[in-house]
Recover the amino acids of this structure.
């Protein structure tokens, strides 16, 4: 079975469900859908390519690069961190942390922020790569920390959210929550504003904390665990949150995709869905990669599906991203697919990395940046 599942004991070992569609050990697993031919409408042109160490490594990491200013920052699983000029691919600086990185990369306010398998948060100087500080967390940090310039916030595998002083690294506060018995391996990256730190939990809840003291401002349950087995009851928010204006978008595994009001947590709309990836938003629609490999475009106003493309079934899709007039999504064989935002039909496809694409693509202007599992980082544009 392609899924990797590990039980979480009292020692807070990470549990993982790396792919979807496995309903019984006795049933033969279907292979990934074969790619179908289509009339190519969009051609991607490679601007540059750069190798970032060993990329995602041998375990299921979700190391997503980050863009700030003229640079893109990326890290591999062994602790190599690189700042790369996003226009030409030149290396600005590189840093060897000499310890495994599992949560990467957060960037902002002059800081590059990373989490480690050893349960640490490391902050580097954005301009030079020199270490500013290192602080302990309660367990593995599997997603990128975030900051508003005053507080650095990290979420741990055991559903703790920790606020650190951005200058010294001293712990200011900690929010503690009991994790679910069985969870996906990974956590969504927290979102930080001037007032709030927002995190999605393994129990299917979203919590917004006062950034100054970590006290909950609101909590909202997006998914309710259902079923007889613990596997059936997994409702992780694992693909990350998306904030656009005053709306917070969230997708859960075996639960729902929803839009929440930022200040109150009130549900604006919701739709049944199962996704271990995040969502993208554009033109009044939300785009989601479902766990079974279907990509959907959802109308925010009515929560109905505008279109659905199931041609990528069981291809272990990553998080989608809006690129120009298209939706970009990577798969387990390393293809980047471009779909029309209007009706979801394929308009383009490019093979990036034979080891697969797991990290969400990044878009800045007319350039899309794709980080392959092997460590290949490519910048592409529409020809």
């Amino acid at each position: 079975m392609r899924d990797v599942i590990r039980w979480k004991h009292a020692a807070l070992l990470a549990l993982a469900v790396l792919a979807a569609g496995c309903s019984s050990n006795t049933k033969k697993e279907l292979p990934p859908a074969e790619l179908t031919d289509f009339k190519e409408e969009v051609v991607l042109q490679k601007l540059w390519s750069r190798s970032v160490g060993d990329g995602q490594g041998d375990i299921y990491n979700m190391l997503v690069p980050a863009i700030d200013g003229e640079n893109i920052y990326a890290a591999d699983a062994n602790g190599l961190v690189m700042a790369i000029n996003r226009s030409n691919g030149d290396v600005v600086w590189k840093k060897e942390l000499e310890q495994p990185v599992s949560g990467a990369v957060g960037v902002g306010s002059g800081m590059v922020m990373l989490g480690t398998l050893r349960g640490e948060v490391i902050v580097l100087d954005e301009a030079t790569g020199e270490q500013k500080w290192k602080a302990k967390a309660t367990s593995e940090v599997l997603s990128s920390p975030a900051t508003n310039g005053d507080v650095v916030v990290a979420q741990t595998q055991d559903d703790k959210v920790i606020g650190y002083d951005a200058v010294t690294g001293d712990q200011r506060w900690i929010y503690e929550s009991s994790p679910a018995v069985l969870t996906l391996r990974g956590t969504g990256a927290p979102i930080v504003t001037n007032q709030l730190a927002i995190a999605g939990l393994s129990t299917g809840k979203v919590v917004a904390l006062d950034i100054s003291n970590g006290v909950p401002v609101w909590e909202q349950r997006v998914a309710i665990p259902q079923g007889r087995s613990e596997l059936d009851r997994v409702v992780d928010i694992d693909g990350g949150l998306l904030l656009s204006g005053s709306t917070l978008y969230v997708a859960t595994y075996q639960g729902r995709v929803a839009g929440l009001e930022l200040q109150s947590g009130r549900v604006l709309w919701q739709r049944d869905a199962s996704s271990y990836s995040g969502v993208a938003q554009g033109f009044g629609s939300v785009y989601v990669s479902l766990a079974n490999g279907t990509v959907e475009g959802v109308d925010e106003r009515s929560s109905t599906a505008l279109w659905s493309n199931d041609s990528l079934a069981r291809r272990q899709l990553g998080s989608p991203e809006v690129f120009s007039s298209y939706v970009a999504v990577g798969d387990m064989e390393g293809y980047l697919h471009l779909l029309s935002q209007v009706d979801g039909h394929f308009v383009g496809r490019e093979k990036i990395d034979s080891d697969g694409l797991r990290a969400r693509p990044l878009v800045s202007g007319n350039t899309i940046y794709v980080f392959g599992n092997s460590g290949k980082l490519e910048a592409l544009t529409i020809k």
Observations:
- DSSP finds no helices and 32 strands in the chain.
- Residues 1-25 have pLDDT under 50 and may be disordered.
- Residues 182 and 230 are 6 Å apart (CA to CA).
